[in-house]
Please model this.
Amino acid sequence: QVQFVESGGGLVQPGGSLTLSCAASRSILSFSAMGWYRQAPGKQREFVAQISSGGTPTNYRNSVKGRFTISRDYAKNTVFLQMNSLKFEDTGVYYCNFRPVPGGGSDYWGQGIQVTVSS
Model:
């Protein structure tokens, strides 16, 4: 079993920046892709960004393109989400996601971390 610890969330003013981290308890080399999702109050969880195990391609939700950057560090077993120019609508609970290779079972999820953009 693998566990994940998310960090880096918090309260930030519009236009500010945060970097989320999701550290795994073991090597993440076995995952085919890693990503971030978010859920705003009263809304469904939505895709934010994804990176393949090889580093490319990366995919982003249209509303965060040019502002968010996803990356991973295999040495640290960690996935990052750099968030710049934050907007009110970026507020929500952010979850890291790890997708096993085909046949490797269901996706893994972090516990979630709150990001609040407010003035």
Q: What stands out?
A: The two ends are 40 Å apart (CA to CA). DSSP finds no helices and eleven strands in the chain. The longest strand covers residues 31-39. The chain has a mean pLDDT of 95.
